[in-house]
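To assess whether ligand presence alters the predicted conformation, the chain was also submitted together with heme C. Input:
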Amino acid sequence: MKALRVIMISIVIMGLFFACKRTETEKVEATAEKEMKAEETAPAQPEAQAPSYAMAGDVERGKAIFKDVNFGNGTAGKSCNSCHPDGKGLEKAGSKSEFNIMGQKQNSLEEAVNFCIEMALKGQAIDPNGQDMKDIVAYIRSIGE
Ligand code: HEC
């Protein structure tokens, strides 16, 4: 009788032991799953921010546009850089909100840029809210920094 009792108790203990082990592995699996989910959401974040980042204006790209003789479909064979070498003379432009270019008043940096595209490059004004404008404005603002 005593031996049977010992066997019964050890079975119960063994059962408890395995039950504990199971919940432990389940816990480990659960955290692993959580980590995997965190990894899944982590790269999604910069992607979600990508549009606003792209819209912020790329200084390097703006600089390239600034030196492009075909910018704004210019027909004068000139780039912005021809008259403003390395942004010379535009150091204050980034912080101004009123411009006087060749006797004409411009009320924003975007207008000033488009005025020079039309008058100096003999091209066509670009979208004031487009990426090219954002990039060239970012470059002009970087000149004065
Ligand atoms: C043919 C020469 C010429 C070209 C090419 C030219 N500009 Fe200008 N730009 C001027 C002149 C002249 C002014 C007015 C005088 C000044 O402020 O330097 C001016 C003024 C500006 C101003 C206002 C500066 C200020 O602080 O008042 C900005 C901004 C500007 N240009 C941007 C550009 C951009 C961008 C391009 C290329 C799309 C460009 N310019 C191409 C001649 C030129």
